[in-house]
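re: that chain from earlier
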Amino acid sequence: MAAGFDSCGWGILLVRFGTVCTASSAMLYRAFVRFLSLVASTFYRRIEVVGLENVPLSGAVVFAGNHPNALVDGLLLISLAGRSPVHFLGNAKLWRFPVLSRLLEALGAIPVLRREEHGPDADNRAAFARVDDILAEGGCVAIFPEGISHTDSRLATLKTGTARMALHAAAHRNTDVAIIPFGLTYLSRERFRSQVLLHFAAPLPMDNARLRAYKNDELGTVRQLTAELAERISRVTLSAPDWATLRFVHAARRLYKPISAKLTPANYVELSRRFVERYALFAEEPDIQRLRIEIESYQAKLDSLGLKDHQLSHPVSASMAMRKVVGRTTLAILLFPVALPGAIILLPAAWLAATVGSRFSYDIDDIATLKLVTAVPVLLSMHALVVIAAGIGFGWVWAVVALLVLPASLLATLLVFEKQAHLVISIRSLVRLTRLSGDIEALVARREALVTAVRTGVDRYADPTVRRMFDARDF
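^ sequence. v structure.
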């Protein structure tokens, strides 16, 4: 009787211990994700999330999206998807690095062997079995079906693994699974304090009709679902046949946009996507071809003079420029005492991150990742050293003060640097505009003619079934 009672008691204790460990693990994961979210929101000045209502609050989900910015894509997704935890599949070669592998394991990532690197015998059965288990338990998996991070101007051909995993879990584990397509668009992916859009598209459910088709024609259903997924992702990303076309579209969009309008990242992507789609349909029209030549010539002239289009569309008087100079300089002086401790820590870390990002990156898609994995550990280490030094030298009270004050000082440093960077750009632009006054007058007149031509073209070739983003009152 006592022995039976003891066994039961130990069993209850073990279950409770397991529950506590699971809860602690979940708390650590959430804390870690919040930290990553703070890192992301510091690196990028503005992160906009659209379509979050398309992400179900419960049930098995496979997030599938484009992959333009290496590990930063996964960081943004798990921070902003609204579900936790999200287990993303990653290239197994990332697990070769000890520190990075521990980070990936802490995030619940799953290593996958790419056939391009390991040959046709690459065995991913263990990875797919783990995905199957996660989905069967109603969990979340994230995958980048292009298979690689890249900087191409269009979506790469999708691998069929996403469709296979979702259909297999739904068919063989009796699980309701939905694929949530998403798109990541960076206004300047590697630049500190840039902007990014995360857009979730409508889900692709593994409904009864799809599962019946899968039972009758597995390969055909997988291919069909992959094609649907590619189409959904393309709706929430910005793709063009080549970078020259994308650059032309951006220039045309800037000329079309009313001066008073402020585009959010979502508006920016949607308007640019519309231009790309309609240009693809009417690129052979003579007036469109002439317009592209004229816009590219105008852009080349701006480049040769070191000017930006917005400097012609938003003229700044000398008095206005001086007011900005005085205002920003005053703010920098007021914040300087608060920002100085943070600058002592931030500047070496920023210099090191920029150096690593420029010297060790293979392509532009991994620069932001290299900057983050360099700067974050350095900043945390320097912060810890300052706190320890304050404690040893002045006592624990000053250690606590350093622990709490340094983050505020770092924020003040960021604010000062941003304002001063804008100040330098404004002064340089004003000098250039003053020195090139003759060229500026001709370019402004040329720009006004192009604005009229672009808006006329939009009136002629825009999709009449789609509501226009701007109307006559805006112009």
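The first strand starts at residue 44 and ends at 50.
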